[in-house]
TrEMBL record:
Cited PANTHER family: TEICHOIC ACIDS EXPORT ATP-BINDING PROTEIN TAGH
Name of this protein: ABC transporter, ATP-binding protein
ABC transporter domain boundaries: 48-268
Organism: Subdoligranulum variabile DSM 15176
Lineage: Bacteria, Bacillati, Bacillota, Clostridia, Eubacteriales
Pfam families per UniProt: ABC_tran
């Protein structure tokens, strides 16, 4: 069926190899520092803090022999667990980095959005960055001017369009960056899951725009996400990656089922100390190190009991007005509910916070979670500092008394408190 369609992306036997524990410097000073440290038997100053010295120099195959074609007008979802190679693949497709082996051919101009702020110069205003991105795509100033009002309206940044983008919040970055990528002339759109920092209304608007780009405008869309609901809603094809290899390429529902079947089992603790956050704006002052669920047993929670989580956060420097948000998702990634704790203060170093939640409105069944660390500004505006996928957990209700077993499929994943009878009126016949 695809043989008569125009190929827009061709990938053949692509491999990407990295050396563990090393930061590429490429400077004489850095090379001399590393050589002198090794000479004295000291830790290399150009390696990441906490790196196991035994791993330095060993290789890691981030991608291992990928081959596929993407056709004109297709919307392809790329899914997989953390470390599967999704972001590495997109960086190769957008020429951020080069493959170690293999060939990649793109037949058209590419508009991409891989990281919050990528392609934006922080000292330039939003308007100036629109011109910059348009020029990179080969558009003339008059062509960009014709799109400018539409870009500003879609992005919702308003008067801030003439403010340097270094003063933008994460949400404003995302809104303008997506608007630029979606409206400037291109044949291929490549989007990583940065829409997570936008509000729900804007996320829906973005998904509608991407769907129109593929179905109405004939653009080719590649979309990476951990949210299976958006993959199902947007894409007509799904590629599943696992340890740098393609393990499935085909129907969306079948691909999602394949991915969910191989996800990590329930756990009471998630370690983020080595979690790679390569899709984030370069804020690194606050980082989650660990989240531990103290109230569960192997990922199982009793519905009517409090849920207690302990967050361990590393701060590079003192911070105040910090908040933590627990986001609850269903099995395919649809947001269900959220709860925040505010006004936290952190000293430099590692701080642990223990927080109690009431999740009794969640119906029995399996749920997922995300954790967000943010700082509050004036007027309730918040800046996302860290955002990571959490553990999955199962809620059970062993205390059912005179109640119907909850049907999540028919009635939804939220179970409100039982209704209370306030009056009974009986009528008697003579």
């Amino acid at each position: 069926m695809q043989q008569n369609k125009e190929i827009m992306i061709r990938v053949r036997n692509v491999k990407k190899k990295y050396k563990l524990g090393q930061i590429g410097g490429g400077t004489l000073r850095g090379d001399l520092q590393s050589w002198w440290a090794r000479k004295r038997g000291k830790e290399d100053p150009n390696t990441l803090i906490g790196t196991d010295q035994r791993l330095i120099g060993t290789t890691f195959m981030a991608l291992n022999g990928l081959s596929f074609d993407v056709y004109k007008g297709e919307a392809v979802g790329i899914i997989g667990s953390n470390g599967a190679g999704k972001s590495t693949l997109l960086k190769l497709l957008t020429h951020v980095t080069a493959p170690t082996e293999g060939d990649i051919d793109l037949y058209g101009r590419v508009a991409s959005m891989l990281e919050v702020g990528t392609g934006f110069h922080p000292e330039m205003t939003g308007r100036e960055n629109v011109y910059l991105n348009g020029a990179i795509l080969g558009m003339t100033r008059s062509e960009i001017d014709a799109k400018m009002n539409e870009i500003i309206a879609f992005s919702e940044v308003g008067d801030f369009i003439d403010t340097p983008v270094k003063r933008y919040s994460s949400g404003m970055y995302v809104k303008l960056a997506f608007s630029v990528a979606a409206h400037l002339d291109s044949e291929i759109m490549i989007m990583d899951e940065v829409l997570a920092v936008g509000d729900m209304k804007f996320q829906k608007k973005c998904l509608t725009k991407m769907r129109q780009a593929a179905k109405r405008d004939g653009k080719t869309v590649l979309y990476v996400s951990h949210n299976m609901a958006t993959i199902r809603d947007l894409c007509d094809r799904c590629i599943v990656l696992d340890q740098g290899r393609i393990v499935f390429d085909g129907d969306v529902d079948e691909g999602i089922a394949r991915y969910l079947a191989t996800k990590t089992q329930d756990s009471d603790c998630v370690d983020y100390s080595h979690y790679k956050r390569d899709n984030w704006y370069k804020r690194d002052n606050l980082r989650l190190q660990e989240v531990r669920m103290l109230s569960s047993r192997q990922g199982v929670l009793e519905r009517r009991e409090p849920v207690v989580l302990r967050y361990t956060i590393r701060a590079q420097q003192p911070a105040e007005a910090v908040g933590i948000r627990l986001e609850i998702r269903d099995e395919v990634g649809n947001p269900l509910a959220a709860a925040c704790v505010y006004d936290l203060e952190l000293s430099e170093g590692i701080t642990a916070f223990t927080v109690r939640y009431d999740l009794s409105v969640l119906a029995p069944g399996k749920h997922g979670s995300y954790f967000t660390v943010f700082t509050l500004g004036e007027g309730g505006a918040h800046t996302v500092e860290d955002w990571v996928p959490g553990m999955t957990f199962k809620i059970v209700d062993t205390l059912l008394e005179h109640e119907t077993e909850w049907n999540t499929v028919a009635w939804g994943p939220i179970q409100l408190p039982n209704a209370v009878l306030t009056e009974k009126t009986e009528k008697y016949h003579d």
